[in-house]
Amino acid sequence: xxxxxxxxxVKQGIGFGIILILMGTISIFAVQQMADLRDDIEVVNQxxxxxxxxxxxxxxxxxxxxxxxxxxxxxxxxxxxxxxxxILLDFIDRIENNRDAYEEIVAEAQARDLYSTExxxxxxxxxxxxxxxxxxxxxxxxxxxxxxRPQAISLITGPAQLVFEDxxxxxxxxxxxxxxxxxxxxxxxxxxxxxxxxxxxxxLLLSALASTVIAFGLVRLIxxxxxxxxxxxxxxAQGDLGVQLYNQSADEIGTLSKSFNKMTNALRAASQETQRxxxxxxxxxxxxxxxxxxLRTTQQQLVVREKMASLGQLTAGIAHEIKNPxxxxxxxxxxxxxxxxxxxxxxxxxxxxxVEEALASVQELLQDLRFNSEKIEExxxxxxxxxxxMLEHSRGQSGQPVSTNLNTLLEEYLTLSYHxxxxxxxxxxxxxxxxxxxxxxxxxxxxxxxxxxxxxxxSNAFYAVQERALRGxxxxxxxxxxxxxxxxxRVAIQVQDNGGGIPPALQERIFEPFFTTKPSGSGxxxxxxxxxxxxxxxxxxxxxxxxTPGEGATFFIDLPAS
Length: 562
What we know:
Layout: H1 8-23, H2 25-73, H3 78-111, H4 117-145, H5 149-157, H6 159-206, H7 209-237, H8 252-349, H9 355-361, H10 363-394, E1 402-404, H11 406-424, E2 431-436, E3 443-445, H12 447-470, E4 479-487, E5 490-497, H13 504-507, H14 527-538, E6 542-548, E7 552-560
Parallel strand pairs: 2-4
Antiparallel strand pairs: 1-3, 4-5, 5-7, 6-7
């Protein structure tokens, strides 16, 4: 065994034993300096470097967990999904083990006052966000087990993505903080070394040639590898993970060099794995963006289908409504033709009279013709208004906001909806009560969108009372009422029916997309969901329901007046 393989304490004993006669108490001081250096080395090796490794491993496992969740969400079949569940749980266990290891080593760091307030705040932030992300992970599993894939995709790309990015930022901050701490500890080791070297210089002055030789040997055996370690730690702090130490001695410096090499190898592997996982995540994100685009296209198609379904319900009502003005147009056109014949006969019979007298005698016929023309124009505009409203309702996009009389719009679609139900069941009877405030102000709304809301509410109300009437309850009289009021700076609308009502458990889900209480084939489950979005998001209002089972339901709309 050569001198390099001896422990640092033995080297100190040999050197300072020879110099002890000459230096006395100065030698004791030098030993203390070397002990401080050893403490600094232990801090770098046993605290800072281990914390860097643990946090890096935690960051890597978090990225791998995120990747496994994406694969789990987009698994093509149940078998692949079940395999991913085990992988998810394994990565969650790894992260929990990382947390336990970190908290264990932090206890020692706190004892040495090496755990800063900033690092505590970062770790607490990560800890809270990790619990949130763990909750999201459990929700993800539940949603996919319930075959609610759209909600699962929304969760993993929305709230879970934000929480993941947040605690990833905290983890990166912890890595950087510990890396800086390692660099600072290395600097402290360098400072300790500088102090030790000063003591060595003092010994050189006080001792003879022998003391000088011994001091030079100790400096060479100890400070050279420490300097190499300091330089290597500085390069790691700057991001160079390929640095290696070649001190293979059996002393503490050699042990530290081997540990340092293991750390840089682990960090380099972790960095490479993180880059690979990042590439996988980016690829999955692109796939997810494509899936989201397809989902949006499907949603738009469903909205158009819901519009066409409601338009089909309106067909009979529109036909009934348009028949009245067309009958008026036909009747007044026929009367006008007869008046033209009478006018021709009157003019023929008065050809011998002066022009003024002839025109005066047919003035009444001309006034009747004008009256008929005005009526034809009036009812023609009425028919044109109905057709234009039907075309606007069938369009895939919303129109422009316009100043609107809500009472008129309510009356129009209440009538159309009623005639639509009557066309399907000629025996359907219902009492319609109107309580429309005459002082209701004009408000700016998108008429096509709001008409869809009214049509959905009226159709549901008529359906509810019709279903209860079919049960044949003694003394039951179907009733639907509509009420409007101006309340301060807002307008309130109520649509009430005395149908079977909505159970409390269903009231919480009544506005969910694709949820319907109607039998299969009788509804799309989008009417109330789209109505809720139109009122709350499109017009800044509120839509909610109150219902007592067996007594009916009341839907409330609250809109800003300006």
